[in-house]
Amino acid sequence: MTELGVLAGLSPGELAAVAYSPEVGLAIVTGRGAEVIDPAGAAAAVEATERAVGPRWLWWSNETYAALGVRVARCWDLAAVHRLLFGGWPADPARIWAALHDLPAATAPGLGQLDLLAAGGGDSGGDAEDAVQPDGHLRPEWTSGGWARSRPRLVAWAALARRAAAEQRRRLDALTVGGDAVGTAYAESAAEMLAAELSADGLPLDVTCAAELIASYVGARPGSEAEAAAARRHRDDAVLRHADGSESTDLRNPAQVRSMLGRLGFDLPDTRSWRLEPFRGAHPVIDELLAWRKAERIATTYGYGWLEQNVGADGRLRGAWSGSDGAAGRMTASAGLHNLPAELRPAVAADAGWVLVRADLGQIEPRVLAAISGDRAFVRATLEDDLYAPVAARLGIDRAKAKVAVLAAMYGQTSGAAGEALRGLERAYPVAMRYLHAARDAGRAGRDLRTHGGRLVRMWATPADADESAARSAAAARGRYARNAAVQGAAAELFKMWAVTVRARTAESPARIVLCLHDELLVHAPRADADHVAALMRTALDEAAARWAPGSGVRFVADLRVVERWSEAKD
């Protein structure tokens, strides 16, 4: 594209709505008009416009971004902003439009088999070339892909995105939250672009090493189902030979495992691994059972089939990423990328001549609590590398108890070892504790709440037939969830703002983010650029924190390591 057309005169960051069909073309709609570019020139047009203008691209979801295959700096993602404004995960165009026009999502029409065959697509009156029905809902024939049938429809779909974005912006501006809701929307939108890039690029994996690690836990790759069954029996026998008279126990059945342990003298409420850990060495069956659990998880979830299904010929492990879950807003991924066992981390390895720059945020949730609550005494504690040390000194207890108390406050534990220390927190950091109590009280009452950056966190209703005891339990569970979501959701916002800042600052280099794991970033970079990338990640954290909570005074810290394998970053 040699001429910018409707994009001429746009200011950097001004909205440019797009709708893209590989068969029909690319529609671009701005306040200056609309144009459609043939499919063959679509990617080049976006690339040229990005270089010349740098607009804020607007689309219904990151599916458009993924389909275009051109990296851009900024966008407005209607689905991401919908999740921020209205909570939950579903964010299809019909739902986005209905929410913005105060229409119940349940009344949005859908297409059945007969509708697909009928003229007009089963819509309820009006002009079939108008995407909006007389009842205000989007026409299901359009939302089911009909928007991409012609050039005029592409233009109309992009224009509709502009209308939706304007209403989203109006609602964001009207929110009363501690942070900048529009800034959060920008970061959430960029996180969806990062999610699309992570899905496409994948995580570098040493496949030979991965196969060797799997074999060390579950044995050689079975050649048949009979061999696989024999391998399972062999793993089971390593445990059951230590459990006299329990050879028939199904180790995959928690109730049977608990009964087996009871016969051996271990009266436990459940058989979770953390519950068994303190009993290591007390009986051989405990040690073998814990080892069996690791092997079984690898065999069933991260075994040879997992490698075959998710690792490409280029040695990249790929899963589908999302910039937000349906709860407090953390990034999520499929293919086990968010739960990769520590035992397999040696297989996550940089390419030859490259390294992994890993940054792990330290004590992120209590530092976030200090920022969003504005508790000045707690803010002062964040100035130390180890936040728990000054908290312990202020409370007159040891560090371990101080850590338990702070975590208990955020996760809703009020009894046991944390009880006395929690009372000390109430006295020492009353502002932070009031913030948590306000979130707890909202949850108990069943009121939805918003995070610091504006994400709606939905509460659930107590069942109508619940007795008094069940109602109290439901209220208490909501209270615990709400106080944690208020902090965890804010931490997710800061993390993503940091991640997309790193994405932006590395855009002109070969370095790329390859993993976002809760509080941890992994960047794949040329070895010669390692120190520069590490310094950039640290300054990006300061930049993101200053935008997310300006003037808070909170110090955020990150542990940075330059390694060849992910496992080398762990102490």
Biggest sheet architecture: 5 strands, mixed
Q: What is the architecture of the largest domain at the second tier of CATH?
A: 2-Layer Sandwich
> How many strand segments?
15
Read across the widest sheet, the strand sequence of neighbours is 3-2-1-4-5
Mean pLDDT: 93
- The portion of residues forming beta strands comes to 5-15%
The CATH topology of the largest domain turns out to be Nucleotidyltransferase, domain 5
Distance between the termini: 52 Å
Structural class, judged by helices and strands?
Answer: alpha+beta
Quick description:
By secondary structure, this protein is an alpha+beta fold.
What topology does this entry show?
Blueprint: E1 15-21, E2 25-30, E3 33-37, H1 42-52, E4 56-59, H2 62-68, E5 75-77, H3 78-86, H4 93-100, H5 113-117, H6 140-143, H7 151-174, H8 181-201, E6 203-204, H9 207-218, H10 225-240, H11 254-263, H12 273-276, H13 284-301, H14 304-310, E7 316-317, E8 321-322, E9 332-333, E10 354-362, H15 364-373, H16 376-381, H17 388-395, H18 399-411, H19 418-428, H20 430-444, E11 449-450, E12 456-457, H21 468-505, E13 512-517, E14 520-526, H22 530-548, E15 557-563
